[in-house]
From TrEMBL:
Top-level taxon of origin: Bacteria
Family according to the record: Belongs to the iron-sulfur cluster assembly SufBD family.
GO BP terms in the entry: iron-sulfur cluster assembly
Organism lineage: Bacteria, Bacillati, Actinomycetota, Actinomycetes, Frankiales
Stretches for region Disordered: 1-84
Coiled-coil residue windows: none
Protein name (Swiss-Prot/TrEMBL): FeS assembly protein SufD
InterPro entries named in the record: Fe-S_cluster_assembly_SufBD, SUF_FeS_clus_asmbl_SufBD_core, SUF_FeS_clus_asmbl_SufBD_sf, SUF_FeS_clus_asmbl_SufD
Signal peptide positions on this chain: none
Amino acid sequence: MVTAPVHNGSPGSPGSPSSPDGSSAATATVPVPAAGSSTGLPFGSRPGVAAGAPDRRPDSRPQPVHSRDPQAHPVPTGREEEWRFTPLRRLRGLLAGPEATDAALEVSVQAPPPVTVEHVGLDDARVGRVLTPVDRVSAFAMTRAERAVVITVPAESAPAEPVIVRLHGGGGVAYGHLVVEVGAFASATVVLDHTGAATFAGNVELSVGDSASLTLVSLQDWDAGAVHVAAHAAAVGRDARFRSFTVTLGGDLVRLSPTVTYAGPGGDAELYGLFFTDAGQHQEHRLLVDHGPRSCRSRVAYKGALQGDGAHAVWIGDVVIGADAVGTDTYELNRNLVLTDGARADSVPNLEISTGEVTGAGHASATGRFDDEALFYLMARGIPADEARRLVVRGFFAEIVDRIEIDSLRERIAAAVEAELGGVV
């Protein structure tokens, strides 16, 4: 087994491997030869581990417990790898599982035919089929949510309009659990729209059937004081396609943990993200893509801008390639643009490779300030400095925003970014 923080660069990868300030990222030669079997996931879950049992790597380092029982999960101290960036005191007690507050969260679902929407108990067989909690907050979300929302897209169907799930916080503590099942050969788009104010812990389970296609757009447009901690888990079937767009703009603290696993060969996953971290905000995205079957593909591209004192963005990108995952093609990219002093970005890409027979595997991470050459180019053509900076940021995000196929969402995100840029000097 080879654990490789490979230093970047792969032809045909999403986005340029160069840093925001124009410097080039280093290049790695892949595939990386390895021997032996997969030793598990570096920071996330490992398939096949019994609920309640600790998973250990050969070096005896304990891995997260897989269990719905919150008490089975240790209370983090902040020294653990998976919690070391998170300001635990700002979680507002979610680690202790406070009781939900009445009317703290309003949930509405707009679903076109033939999509069905059900509100079921947490003992429903579809709850927990894709996601088993690996931390206390996720376990509390699964046990304290009153009901789960199950959205089913029938096999071989293609709804003409997206399914829109609106979650509006009215203050207080709330828990939620959402299950989306897309049948074989079906195609659908689901939008999660988070607004208002709440202390919210949620789980999202996504099952993409064989040869099916699912696009998920998760928009975190909370008010300034909101706290949002969520685990998203997607299982991608044989020859299926999954695309996700995670857009994080508002909230005091947002911590999202998307995970992708493959249920058969030929699966394709693309995970895109955009975040704008303002003064005092903490925005954390912890991704895990687990390549188990052969001949699967993944692309990850997250871009963030930061401004103001105390702005803190965290991006963790873990990709695991198992011993049987021959023919894997994967690449992950994170780029951060620091607009003012006082902002901090932490970026940690990781590759764990247990086979030498991969098509490609690489990652790139870059954090920097404005591209001085681009600014000079624009200003030399008569564009004022402030407007030139705004144009650079718009272009920086364009790769992500332009991929979203819903016009109203693209316009809303562009307007939100423009409003944020109003504070850039």
